[in-house]
Amino acid sequence: MDSEALATFLMVHRQGGVSAAATALSRTQSAISRRLALLEEELGAVLFERVGRGLRLSQAGEALLPHAEKVAAALGDAVAAVQAAKSDAAGTVHIAAVGTLASSGLAAVLARLRTSLPGLDIRLQTATSAEVSEKVRASDIAVGLRYYEDPSPDLLCKVVHHEQLVVACAPSHPLAGKRLKSLVRLSKERWLAFPQPPRRTEPHAEAIFSQFLVRGVEQVDWSAVDSLTAQKRLVEAGFGLAFLQQSGIAEEVARGSLALIHVADLDVRVPVACVVRRSAFLSRATHALLAELERGEF
Q1: CA distance linking residue 229 with residue 21, whole number of Å
Q2: Which of 40, 58, 63, 293 has its CA 20 to 30 A from that of 242?
Q3: What pLDDT was estimated at residue 190?
Q4: E-only strand ranges, the chain
Q5: Which domains does the chain have, with CATH numbers?
Q6: Which residues are paired to 191 by β-bridges?
Q7: Average pLDDT of the chain to the nearest whole number
Q8: For the HTH lysR-type domain, which residue ranges apply (predicted)?
Q9: Is 274 in contact with 158 (CB distance < 8 Å)?
């Protein structure tokens, strides 16, 4: 077994099939199939099962996956360490964040970092909390920002911020700017919320609906909207209410395009955790990014 075989295995898993993996690796399908067959022959186990037109990991493949990821991550660390030693350039930092955290506050943090490290290339992508952890674990990115800490032993997590959630509404809403005793008063309203990914949970959405459950409201009328910007625009237009992070709508509230409904029995603060892979090589730029994030000013 060698690193190339494990890299092929990982790519087939991530792309969901041999054809897509071959395209990603700029190889022929026959070369990928042959490399995978040799690895399975060496291990004496089938690593994938066919599902429709795609492939999914077998039980043996599931067992191999974390070890293959660690090998790939270690090789990536080795290359990154050598490149860092060869150059004084700031380099590139890859960061993934839950979409609702990619606000003007985070943009300000990244702008400060780029000012302190001229030439730094920052690559930001958004994902769910679970996907952020997966990307860090697979070494696709160096730093992740997600809701709540991840207990995985492969990851190091630190809570760096708490997001205050508030009830946002259109300025024309009858309750705009009003103070209510309980959230129950809003249980008959139409709500906008992020969709729940299949077989996964998104803590931001869970925190929202749990507020109604603890008050004895088992169902609310809601629509799934997977974009923070879309949620804000729809709320502005009067299509519903939404729980949104206070920092993320400060500009809209200040200019009057969004308003708040103040609820006396509502105080939801969702912890935001910074995630890195345990024992990963962290460049000078990555350390600087972590220091900025740990200030919690976003």
Answers
A1: 33
A2: 293
A3: 95
A4: 48-51, 54-57, 92-98, 121-127, 143-147, 155-169, 179-180, 190-193, 221-224, 241-245, 259-263, 268-277
A5: 3-84 (1.10.10.10), 88-160+271-294 (3.40.190.10), 162-270 (3.40.190.10)
A6: 222, 241
A7: 87
A8: 1-58
A9: yes
Q: Give the C-alpha separation, 293 to 271, whole Å.
A: 13
Beta pairing class for 92-98 and 121-127: parallel
Does pLDDT of 75 surpass 90?
no
Whether the model pTM is above 0.85: no
What tokens does 294 get?
């740990």
Give the separation between CA 181 and CA 222, rounded to whole angstroms: 22
Identify the CA nearest to 56 among candidates 48, 66, 45, 64.
48
Task: List, for residues 109-141, the tens digit of each pLDDT value.
Answer: 899 998 888 888 899 999 888 899 989 988 888
CB 111: neighbour CB atoms within 10 A?
12
d(CA 98, CA 201): 13
Inter-residue contact 73 to 3 (CB < 8 Å): no
- What's the length of the chain? 298
Please write the tens of the pLDDT for every residue from 153-171: 989 999 999 988 999 999 9
CA distance to 137, 166, 222, per residue, from 113 (Å): 24, 29, 39
DSSP 89: S
Q: Which pLDDT score is estimated for 67?
A: 86
Residues 6+ away with beta carbon under 8 Å from 54: 16, 17
Q: What DSSP letter does each residue of 166-223 carry, written as one string?
A: EEEE-TTSTTTT-EES-GGGGTTSEEEE----TT---HHHHHHHHHHHTTT----EEE
Q: Are 239 and 190 in contact (CB under 8 A)?
A: yes
Query: Which pair of tokens denotes residue 17?
Result: 């099939």
Amino acid making up residue 252: E
CA pair distance 53, 32, nearest whole angstrom: 16
Classified as helix, coil or strand, 73 is helix
